[in-house]
Specification:
Elements: H1 2-27, H2 31-52, H3 60-74, H4 77-80, H5 82-99, H6 104-122
Helix pairs in contact: 1-2, 1-6, 2-3, 2-5, 2-6, 5-6
Length: 130
């Protein structure tokens, strides 16, 4: 359990740091970088929840499927659709660049993914916290 706790705490600090950096990049107009950071933050949060439940996820497909499963179990659309929402980020960014559109859609995706990450961390039992 000590090894799992250390990994979960490492995932937590990295995930939250990546999320914070993504928010900063969004405010600074560095959209592509923020997308990459959001992917990392979300992935680490899902892996931590799985690890806290005795499961190890090692590939993108299993991580996405686990997030969908968690979202279904919890009746939480933000978690269930988090990877799909994030997958739409790049396309939305391209559409905005081409049409000089508004950035509201990107910030909506950011809010949804950030909320999903926060909800995922709430699923990790307290005994795994520092």
């Amino acid at each position: 359990m000590a090894t799992e706790t250390a990994r979960i705490n490492r995932y937590r600090s990295q995930s939250l740091r990546l999320l914070d950096n993504a928010l900063g990049d969004m405010r600074g107009g560095r959209w592509a970088q923020s997308e990459d950071l959001l992917w990392g933050s979300l992935t680490l949060a899902v892996k931590a929840v799985a690890l806290s439940r005795g499961q190890s996820l090692n590939d993108d497909k299993s991580i996405r499927e686990y997030a969908e499963q968690l979202g279904q179990e919890r009746w939480d659309k933000r978690i269930r659709e988090s990877f799909d929402r994030l997958a739409a980020f790049g396309e939305s960014l391209q559409n905005i660049r081409e049409s000089r559109g508004r950035l509201d859609r990107l910030f909506s995706i950011l809010d949804d993914v950030a909320s999903a990450v926060e909800q995922l961390w709430d699923l990790v039992p307290v005994e795994y916290e520092d």
